[in-house]
């Protein structure tokens, strides 16, 4: 049995609790309300160069206006896409099964006062075509683009999410 | 939506028990009564958490190649409980999340985990060679079995288990395509019978409880 990386995960959770405060979008005419979305617990799974991996985080909109995550970029991947895994229990040829479908999304809405969790089996940011391997313990910068806002850069920690800290749980 | 190419939406296994379980609000099979002095976590009074296949059916047998290039025959695993998941290594979300849950289930089970075989069957045999499966599972848990077969072999097994596989072209992505697929874990008991289907998202504690219960059943019935 392998030693659990719960300490590492806990650290990542603490350090990743980046707060992106107001002021970064000052002066934008189309958005009079200050940008006030916090990003917490940004983590990604390890992945080999050339592969894809998912990034998860919690977005909280403390502001008065709705915001929308529309994309991003990072040096570690060719493309950054927004995806949602939709799990449905459905009948196929008269038999029930649980099917996972991937959908690419143009945007992830973060309504005013809401918390949106990107988590396994749900919304995630996909890093497509990793430029280099991401190993447990690494971290990298991910720049998030919100609609009509200046880009926001967060640090993402690479963890092997099988610890008991609840990353994969509910 | 993108160009959808459906490989197979078939299956010959009648999961009647599964229908019943879903219709009954996922109510599991009733226990056989109060456990008298037995471990409360594992006593027969505890219900299963997954979808129950009632009556159990012999799990369709197969022989595939594992990540060490050794043959893996399902019927050779009798005496162990086998957990089967159908996925692919380029799957960025649900597959690694499922395998991460298995790692937690293993820890929950403690020494009993030695009697469980966790098997990841690729539905993408073109891209997922045994070598790639080895690298992929090595990042998660090298004890998991990564199973590969020719497209025909995989198709036969997918059909036998009623697994849904749909390739979705993603021409703008370097990956080329994604695969929508069944997210259930299929649980085969120590006698080679297909007993349970665990949905994605089932708590590792609950999954471990089901596996523990199957491990403590009498063998050979």
Walk me through the structure.
With 170 residues, chain A is mostly beta strands. Chain A has one helix at 6-15; strands spanning 37-44, 53-61, 67-73, 77-92, 95-105, 108-110, 115-118, 123-130, 139-146, 152-158. Chain A has a single domain, classed as Sandwich (Immunoglobulin-like). Chain A is built from 1 helix and 10 strands; from the N terminus they run αββββββββββ. Chain B contains 5 helices and 11 strands. In chain B, helix 2 crosses helix 5. Chain B is globular, with a radius of gyration of 17 Å. Chain B is of the alpha+beta class. The longest helix of chain B has 16 residues, at 94-109. The interface between A and B is large, with 43 and 50 residues.
Per CATH, the architecture of chain A is: Sandwich
What is the class of chain A in the CATH system? Mainly Beta
CATH level 1 class label of chain B:
Alpha Beta
Q: Estimate the strand proportion of chain B.
A: 25-35%
Q: Do you know the CATH topology of chain A?
A: Immunoglobulin-like
| Assembly classification | heterodimer
Q: What spatial form of chain B do the alpha-carbon principal axes imply?
A: globular
Please give the number of β-strands of chain A: 10
Q: What descriptive keywords fit this protein?
A:
heterodimer; A: 170 residues; mainly beta; Immunoglobulin-like; 10-stranded mixed beta sheet; 1 helix; 10 strands; 48% strand; disordered N terminus; disordered C terminus; B: 221 residues; alpha+beta; Glutaredoxin; 6-stranded mixed beta sheet; 3-stranded antiparallel beta sheet
Secondary structure topology:
The complex is a heterodimer of chains A (170) and B (221).
Chain A: H1 6-15, E1 37-44, E2 53-61, E3 67-73, E4 77-92, E5 95-105, E6 108-110, E7 115-118, E8 123-130, E9 139-146, E10 152-158
Parallel strand pairs in A: 1-10
Antiparallel strand pairs in A: 1-2, 2-7, 2-8, 3-6, 3-9, 4-5, 4-8, 9-10
Chain B: E1 4-8, H1 16-23, E2 51-58, E3 63-65, E4 71-73, E5 81-87, H2 94-109, E6 116-122, H3 130-140, E7 145-147, H4 151-161, E8 165-170, E9 176-182, E10 185-188, E11 193-198, H5 204-215
Parallel strand pairs in B: 5-6, 6-7
Antiparallel strand pairs in B: 1-8, 2-11, 3-4, 5-10, 8-9, 10-11
């Amino acid at each position: 049995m392998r030693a659990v990386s719960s300490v590492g995960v806990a650290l990542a959770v603490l350090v990743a609790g980046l707060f992106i405060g107001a002021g970064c979008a000052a002066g934008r005419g189309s958005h009079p309300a200050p940008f006030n979305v916090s990003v917490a617990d940004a983590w990604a799974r390890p992945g080999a160069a050339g592969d894809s991996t998912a990034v998860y985080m919690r977005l909280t909109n403390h502001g008065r206006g709705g915001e929308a995550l529309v994309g991003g970029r990072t040096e570690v991947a060719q493309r950054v896409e927004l995806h949602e895994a939709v799990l449905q229990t459905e009948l196929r040829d008269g038999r029930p099964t649980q099917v996972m479908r991937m959908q690419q999304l143009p945007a992830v809405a973060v309504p005013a006062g809401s918390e949106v969790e990107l988590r396994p089996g749900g919304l995630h940011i996909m890093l497509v075509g990793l430029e280099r391997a991401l190993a447990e313990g690494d971290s990298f910068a991910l720049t998030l683009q919100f609609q009509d806002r200046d880009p926001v850069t967060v640090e993402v920690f690479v963890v092997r999410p099988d610890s008991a800290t609840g990353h994969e749980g509910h | 939506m993108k160009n959808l190419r459906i490989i197979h939406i078939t299956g010959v296994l009648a999961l009647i028990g599964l229908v019943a379980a879903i219709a009954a609000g996922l109510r599991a099979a009733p226990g056989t009564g109060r456990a008298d002095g037995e471990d409360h976590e594992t006593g027969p009074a505890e219900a299963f958490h997954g979808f129950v296949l009632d009556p159990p059916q012999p799990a369709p047998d197969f022989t595939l190649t594992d990540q060490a290039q050794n043959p893996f025959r399902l019927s050779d695993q009798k005496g162990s409980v086998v957990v089967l998941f159908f996925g692919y290594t380029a799957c960025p979300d649900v597959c690694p999340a499922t395998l991460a849950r298995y790692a937690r289930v293993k820890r929950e089970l403690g020494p009993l985990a030695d009697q469980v075989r966790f098997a990841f069957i690729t539905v993408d045999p073109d891209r997922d060679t045994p070598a790639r499966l080895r690298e992929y599972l090595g990042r998660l848990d090298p004890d998991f079995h990564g199973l590969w077969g020719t497209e025909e072999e995989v198709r036969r097994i997918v059909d036998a288990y009623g697994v849904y596989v749909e390739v979705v072209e993603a021409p703008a992505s370097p990956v080329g395509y994604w695969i929508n697929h069944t997210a259930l874990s299929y649980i085969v008991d120590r006698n080679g019978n297909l007993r349970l289907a665990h949905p994605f998202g089932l708590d590792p504690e609950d999954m471990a409880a089901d596996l523990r219960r199957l491990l403590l059943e009498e063998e050979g019935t």
